[in-house]
Design brief:
Strand content: 35-45%
CATH superfamily: Gcn5-related N-acetyltransferase (GNAT)
Strand order of the largest sheet: 1-2-3-4-5-6-8-7
Shape: globular
CATH topology: Aminopeptidase
Radius of gyration: 16 Å
Length: about 170
């Protein structure tokens, strides 16, 4: 477990997170930021939880933001490449817990983990231009906008652009 200041911890997903993960993974209102286009079954999420993920071989890591023993969000590293020392980062906080500054604390903690433990030097994120909260989050953490992906995300019947953010620590 990785402490998130005095808020809680980032931890690996557990079997006890099954129902919570079913809820967030099957929330179609947030599918636009991922490759998800169909609901997950209880079996597929259970198999994910029992699989032994390896960041190096799978190139991805999901950690759960746990506050007072309850999962409230998830933060992912993806496209991890130890040779080029880079990874993508994405975060999701359950709607009822948004606006409390928790995503900023979780992102800061994941950055420290990526830089200090994994020796990543380059983190990036694709953020839909319609997501003001996420745009503000990455800007507040010192990520710089380095480009725009035109017509990148299908959202409510139309394409929207996504900003590419990057933070390099050398």
């Amino acid at each position: 477990m990785i402490p998130v200041k005095d808020l809680g911890v980032l931890r690996a997903p557990e079997e006890s997170d099954l129902k919570w993960l079913m809820h967030i993974e099957n929330d179609s209102s947030v599918w636009y930021v991922s490759a998800t286009k169909e609901p997950y079954s209880m079996l597929s999420i259970r198999q994910y939880l029992t699989r032994h993920e390896n960041l190096v071989t799978d190139g991805q890591l999901r950690l759960i933001l746990d506050v007072d023993g309850d999962p409230v969000g998830a933060i992912d590293l993806f496209d991890y490449d130890p040779f080029t020392k880079r990874a993508g980062v994405g975060i999701m906080i359950e709607e009822k817990h948004r606006g409390k500054g928790w995503s900023k604390l979780a992102l800061e903690t994941m950055e420290h983990y990526a830089y200090n433990t994994l020796h990543v030097e380059n983190l990036y994120a694709h953020v839909p231009m319609i997501n003001d909260a996420s745009l503000g989050l990455f800007e507040s953490r010192g990520f710089r906008e380095v480009g725009v992906l035109m017509h990148w995300i299908w959202w409510e019947g139309e394409y929207v652009d996504a900003k590419i953010f990057q933070k390099i620590i050398i």
